[in-house]
Write a structure and sequence with these properties.
Elements lengths: L7 H21 L2 H11 L30 H10 L11 H11 L13 H9 L1 H8 L7 E4 L2 E4 L13 H8 L7 E2 L7 E2 H11 L8 H10 L5 E3 L5 E3 H8 L12 H17 L4 H19 L17 H4 L6 H16 L9 H16 L3 H6 L1 H14 L4 H11 L21
Antiparallel strand pairs: 1-2, 3-4, 5-6
Length: about 425
């Protein structure tokens, strides 16, 4: 039998058909299969991206407006203490982040020495503004990545102290997803790029997941799981289980941030169904245990101790605890209770006692003393505002209408005399 040789035209036609078929298969294939092909054959790095359907983050609203917990006058007095009166030189990112989540980007102040919400935002998202404050005395806060921006965090000078705290704070402050973020080398990035970088870099075994949980929960629902750059699937179920794992003494701020994050995710699950029934039940049971513990460990003056997780033992065998740690415990518990349903509350009179103690404590210190522990006291301002079903910025804006700022005045040949204090 004679062998048949294919003509060059036939060979070209076959090749065209194969290319067309391959192209069709590629275009019709799943996103994952196309990415796998690009990685193997084109040696392209895969950067997973989560589709986010909103331009502004979600906000979990408080349930209550209770003047028995805090009156207008008491709230104003506390907020006055926690205004962001930061020096512009060497502004601490951790202070700015805490102030932003309490005051929001919309905050404005008549006193020019107070840093506005927009100024705080710009300090965090623009390397040039950070450089103006720190010069070459600190490494950049914003770190260029191949497909995004990460945040320098840790104990080094000029850094964000906690992982994803930058993102969580700006998120709670109401930043827009398309807001430009200007890193040292990349000038075309947005907040969305920071979110995506954080999502793909996330690890469940990180020491701190509290702020990652908050940021992801306020941005990506109804998405409930995603893949990291390592190909690992992460879900909100896993994050809840990670938050409630281990002894309650573990975690940032004497374990209270974990409590707030779990409560936040359960509230988001109410609307967006981001948790399985079993994970929600585990998280809810955890909060019930926290409720029971703080119900039996409150001191007579109203504060909850830093060792609240010991329950009655904290009362019967009290420890020598620095005051600021009791401020942390009391303020942070009031904060999560403001977004918690009543069935997760200790007796109401205990909430009132805790609020009165924290109000007395906050207003008894000078502004300089508050500034030294600003991060802890900022939570007090946020918690008490939530208990009046408001936030610091809108409340303060209304308060300033009837209590305007009065600058200090210096008469000729007279020493500087401080005016009568006003709120």
């Amino acid at each position: 039998m004679k062998s048949r040789k294919l003509s060059s035209k036939t060979l070209i036609a076959v090749q065209v058909v194969v290319v067309i078929a391959f192209g069709a298969a590629y275009s019709l294939g799943s996103r994952e299969s196309r990415q796998s092909f690009d990685e193997v054959f084109l040696q392209e790095t895969f950067y997973p991206e989560v589709k986010i359907e909103r331009e502004l983050p979600l906000r979990v609203k408080p349930f209550y407006n209770d003047p028995t917990v805090v009156t207008d006058e008491e709230l104003a007095a506390v907020l006055k203490q926690v205004r962001p009166k930061f020096p512009r030189k060497h502004m601490k990112p951790n202070h700015v982040e805490h102030a932003l989540r309490t005051w929001s980007i919309q905050s404005t102040f008549e006193d020019p020495s107070i840093v506005s919400g927009v100024e705080m935002r710009d300090f965090l998202i623009d390397h040039a503004r950070f450089l103006a404050s720190w010069g070459d005395e600190a490494d950049p806060l914003l770190v260029d990545q191949p497909a995004g921006i990460s945040i320098r965090w840790g104990t080094e000078i000029g850094g964000s102290v906690h992982h994803d705290h930058w993102l969580a704070s700006l998120t709670e402050a109401g930043i827009h997803r398309d807001e430009h973020v200007f890193a040292p080398a990349q000038r075309d990035m947005t907040v969305n790029d920071v979110i995506q970088q954080s999502l793909r870099d996330f690890h469940l075994d990180e020491p701190e997941v509290e702020w990652s949980a908050m940021a992801f929960g306020l941005w990506i629902p109804p998405v409930k799981q995603w893949k990291t750059s390592e190909g690992r699937t992460i879900s909100f179920d896993q994050i809840v289980q990670r938050l409630i794992r281990g002894d309650k003494r573990f975690g940032v701020c004497v374990g209270t941030h974990r409590v707030y994050s779990v409560m936040l995710l359960i509230r988001l699950d109410d609307e967006y169904d981001i948790l399985s029934d079993s994970a929600r039940a585990e998280g809810y049971a955890y909060l019930e245990k926290v409720r029971d513990l703080i119900s039996v460990c409150q001191f007579e003056d109203g504060h909850w101790p830093a060792n609240w997780m010991e329950g009655k033992t904290a009362l019967t065998h009290p420890e020598e605890i620095p005051e600021y740690k009791n401020v942390i415990a009391t303020g942070h518990h009031l904060e999560w209770l403001a977004i918690a349903p009543k069935e997760l509350h200790p007796p109401h009179e205990q909430i009132v006692k805790a609020a009165k103690w924290i109000i007395r404590n906050t207003t008894s210190h000078s502004e300089e003393e508050i500034l030294q522990k600003y991060t802890f006291y900022s939570h007090v301002g946020n918690a008490l505002a939530l208990w009046r079903n408001t936030h610091a910025a809108p409340f303060w804006k209304e308060w300033q209408k009837t209590h305007p700022y009065v600058p200090e005045q210096k008469a000729d040949n007279a020493p500087l005399v401080a005016p009568k204090p006003t709120l």
